[in-house]
Amino acid sequence: MLTRISKPHLVDLLRIADRNKWLTPRIRYASVRSKPELIHDLKSHFKIVMEDQRLLFRPRRARNLPRLEYDLETKSYIVDGSAVDIPKLSREKVVFRISRVPVTLVF
Known about the structure:
Helix content: 25-40%
Distance between the termini: 50 Å
Number of domains: 1
Strand order of the largest sheet: 1-2-3-4-5
Radius of gyration: 16 Å
Largest sheet: 5 strands, antiparallel
Order of helices and strands: HHEEEEEH
């Protein structure tokens, strides 16, 4: 079933999962890894269920993960019921800004 998702879309999902710390241990998503390797690692974290034209990612261990789905017709991810452009999100640059105001830390 996961073979119907393109490798770039799988890598984008893993980037977002890594950024949000959804999966422990992390899944390496380097471009040198093959698609079957990525699918094998995803299957160790999720039970994949086909429902209509959607793949549902059900976590194997209880965690505070959003509900993840992949729509095979539109080739898009659905997170907690709303369509999300994961390829675009995964490639966003991290926002970094230096603030020059006094800060007080309380321990």
